[in-house]
Amino acid sequence: MINKQNLWFLTLFSLIMVLSIYYLTMSEDTLATLNAEAKEPTSQVVISENDTIIALKVASEEALVNKMNELEGIILSKDASVAEKNKAYEDLQNINKNEADKEQIIKLIKEQFKLDSFVEIDGNNIKVMVSSKEHNTALANNIIRVVQDLYNENKYIIIKFDN
Fold first, then answer.
1. Amino acid 108: pLDDT
2. pLDDT digit string (tens) for 32-42?
3. Cα–Cα dist 157/135, whole Å
4. Would you report the helix, strand and coil content of the chain in percent, each value rounded to 5?
């Protein structure tokens, strides 16, 4: 059975793992930009992302935080059974894995196609919204190939264009 100390260790370890993966998948340009911004606190950041993508990211982040809080509540609950706690823990691990996959996909699309994107993963379904003035099937097919190359098993990938 998981006690509070082990739970906190696993929660913090998972958070550190996600942040580490995010840091490792950041491009050199992004790191250089972040370092330059840290040295110049008066510099202003220009947001180039589409409003729709920003709204989707915010909504997704809020839903993710709520889901993680709910799962942590189950794990910490004295009334929950061992099976419920194990299921909640597995769900937290899946959330962490999906978040790392999302960041990797967003990074690949940014590097290879120079496009901002929003990614949503639900099991074998991957939805990608791309901010692009160009809406053609060739671009969509290329993005699908890049995303599918990340996985050994076939995924159902949907590309939507916004702009």
1. 93
2. 776 676 666 55
3. 16
4. 65, 15, 25
Structure tokens at 7: 């739970």
C-alpha 99: how far from chain center:
3
Scan for tokens 């190939």, then name that residue.
145
pLDDT digits (tens, 9 = 90+) for 15-66: 787 777 777 777 777 767 766 766 665 545 444 556 788 888 888 888 888 8
d(C-alpha 103, C-alpha 99), whole Å: 6
Give 50's contacts (C-beta < 8 A, 6+ positions apart).
116, 131, 162, 163
Alpha-carbon gap, residue 136 to 34, rounded angstroms: 33
* Cβ contact 99:16 at 8 Å: no
Q: Dihedral sign for Cα 49, 55, 59, 65, please.
A: positive
The per-residue pLDDT of the chain, averaged, comes to: 83
Structural domains of the chain sorted by starting position, each given as residue range(s) with its CATH number in brackets: 4-162 (1.10.287.4300)
